[in-house]
Design brief:
single chain, alpha+beta, 2 domains, eight-stranded mixed beta sheet, two-stranded antiparallel sheet, 9 helices
């Protein structure tokens, strides 16, 4: 092993082995850590092992620079200059946290943990609503007249109308039952004949509008006639239907604005009827409603 001395004047009896120093420098340059090479390049004079290293020019005893610098570098420290005895300037990379890689045992940079409350990572993209896939489910279809505040439309396709249909309205319970043709014959005078029209309001709410048909004798009062006219007009335009007691009929108001056409959900009329009357279809003699009308329960 060789020692380095910064002052040749302090050891006049020793000769500088330039070839040996060059060979030592070449060996160190092949090693992966370049900091040791840079420090040793300015080390000074090479002297033989076992010789008295003497003193430096300022009278300070020479030290074993090779062992000191190698130990500092292997410990992850920054080498110290002999003259200034200060740490070599470090870059911002040296200040980052490090951890020991299990594969090599060397210190590597460690990225700081991200802040979970950084607004930049929490802000939604402006197009987030376009990427959210939703499908509106149809779970309820009311059977009723249009609300007096609503503008409504009626589906123009005859496939979305059921006429004539028999229904039983329980006004005190606010329930409407659909009666099958077989049971209608067994319940004379208990049902009304209507046209069930699929309608929709501006909010996209579907409902079945029961428009009453003329009585068996052919008579048609003004309430029934005006409702039928409103349903016919609603197949082409947005209308509002309100009851006028002084008129004795429904008053029809047409929207004057350029309202867009309705968007009809993609459901068959059969599916809509099933949802609307799923628990209210009178199809057998022992149906609870039949037993109620007959006074059995």
């Amino acid at each position: 092993m060789r020692k380095y001395n910064n002052d040749t004047a302090g050891n006049g009896n020793s000769e500088v082995d330039l070839e040996a120093r060059k060979a030592e420098m070449a060996r160190i340059a092949e090693e992966p850590d370049s900091k040791e090479v840079e420090v040793l390049a300015s080390a000074g004079k090479v002297v033989d092992d076992g010789e008295d290293t003497g003193s430096s020019a300022n009278g300070t005893p020479a030290v074993d620079r090779t062992e000191t610098l190698s130990q500092q570098i292997s410990d992850g420290e920054t080498p110290v200059s002999d003259k200034s005895n200060k740490k070599i300037a470090t870059s911002s990379e040296d200040k980052k946290p490090r951890h020991e890689a299990p594969e090599t045992g060397r210190l590597v940079l460690t990225d700081p943990a991200p802040n979970p409350f950084d607004p930049a990572t929490l802000r939604l993209d402006q197009s987030f609503a376009d990427t959210v896939g939703v499908k509106k489910l149809l779970t309820t279809v009311p059977v009723r007249k249009p609300n007096r505040q609503d503008f409504v439309r009626v589906h123009p396709d005859p496939l979305y109308r059921l006429t004539p249909a028999a229904i039983i309205e329980l006004k005190e319970d606010r329930e409407v039952y659909l009666v099958t043709p077989n049971m209608a014959q067994a319940l004379p005078g208990e049902f009304s004949t209507v046209t069930l029209c699929l309608a929709i309001n501006r909010q996209g709410v579907l409902f079945l509008w029961p428009v009453k048909l003329p009585n068996p004798d052919g008579k048609h009062n003004e309430w029934h006639r005006s409702a039928a006219e409103a349903a016919e007009l609603a197949m082409k335009k947005w209308v509002r239907v309100t009851a006028s007691m002084s008129l004795g009929a429904y008053q029809i108001v047409e929207a004057i604005g350029g309202l867009p056409e309705p968007v009809w959900p993609d459901f068959s009329f059969q599916e809509i009827l099933r949802i609307a009357f799923r628990e209210r279809i009178v199809d057998r003699p022992d149906h609870p409603l039949v037993r109620r009308l007959q006074g059995i329960v």
